[in-house]
Amino acid sequence: MDILQTLLITVVIFLVIVGGYLLLSTPSVGKAQKRRLQSLRYRHSENTDTKVESQLKKAIAARRPKAHRVAGSASRTEALEMRLERTGKGWTLSQYIYASLGLSLFVAVLIYLQSGAALLSLGIGAVIGLGLPHLVVGFFIKKRTNNFVAKFPDGIELLVRGLRSGLPVAETLQVVAEEVPGPVGIEFKGVVERIKIGKTMEDSLQEAGDKLGIPEFNFFTITLAIQRETGGNLAETLSNLADVLRKRSQMKLKIKAMSSESKASAYIVGSLPFIVFGLIYWINPDYLGQFFVDDRLIIAGLGGLVWMSIGAFIMAKMVSFEI
């Protein structure tokens, strides 16, 4: 049995496991009933905070992207370009592709010089070259998103103070762009610039919302659009929105604190096999050198990686909560 057959057997086993999980995982009846009761409570409640929270949940559900596509994109290339734009680093698509190819080639050559297995080196190089840049981009997107969400309630409250003082909405957006630092000021500055060149406020905010992909900003856009059509006290509505966003942030921090112990345990358990393998291979390469040559050991190693990946996925789902 050569290495190509070994890889095919491992891939087939992994696909069978994933297919069985997808077939057996059905929606929970209890959770569906609970969501139904909550929707009825939101629909018939007269509390302003409850109504705001209900509209926010609807906005989150409506703006959730499907499959690989990002809101506002029509292809994988546009979705990747939008992801790079969300980092705020100014990276281009060509830079991302060249970095991925260079990393893949470097890792493949390094592993081939150590093991002599060409197909295994190419497979690991492709996985690292495609996966690591994706994780780096996701890390910077998450970091910028957290910075935006942390400062966004301050921007809304500044907007509320401007509206209560008698300023129009366009001028208060300009004030927020100048006074609030970080990504909030940058995005509001882009909205103001689009309004100055002739776009409507709704289109400018919607374009910024598609670029950011943040539910809080999407609901802010929907709130302004509805208020301009139906009227009402916009300052009070935005003040309630800022209060809801602060409560959401507090809840996220509580969940993060409660799940930190589980996450630390998962990181330690997941990294120990790789650390031990690397240390033993560094001390005595001949002892573990057969893992790159013997077909049985390759199958065992790949099977172990598959099962560890499934375990990491399950642990990630257990500590992931939607607010």
Kindly describe this structure.
The model is unreliable at 63-68 (pLDDT under 50). The chain is elongated. It has one domain (3-318). Helix 9 runs antiparallel to helix 10 and helix 10 runs antiparallel to helix 11 (234-283). The protein is built from 13 helices and no strands. By secondary structure, the protein is mostly helical.
Topology:
Elements: H1 3-24, H2 29-44, H3 48-62, H4 76-86, H5 93-115, H6 118-164, H7 169-179, H8 183-196, H9 201-212, H10 215-230, H11 234-283, H12 285-288, H13 295-318
Helix pairs in contact: 1-13, 3-10, 3-11, 5-6, 6-7, 6-11, 7-8, 8-9, 9-10, 10-11
Question: Summed up, what is this model?
Answer:
This protein has 323 residues and is mostly helical. The protein is built from 13 helices and no strands. The longest helix has 50 residues, at 234-283.
The count of strands amounts to: 0
SSE string, helix = H, strand = E? HHHHHHHHHHHHH
Mean pLDDT: 77
Number of helices: 13
Q: What general outline do the C-alpha atoms trace?
A: elongated
- N-to-C span: 50 Å
How does the helix and strand content classify structurally? mainly alpha
Reported for the largest beta sheet, the result is: none
Q: What ranges have pLDDT less than 50 throughout 5 or more consecutive residues?
A: 63-68
Output the radius of gyration: 25 Å
Helix residue percentage:
over 70%
Estimate what percentage of residues fall within beta strands. Answer: under 5%
Can you tell me the number of structural domains?
A: 1
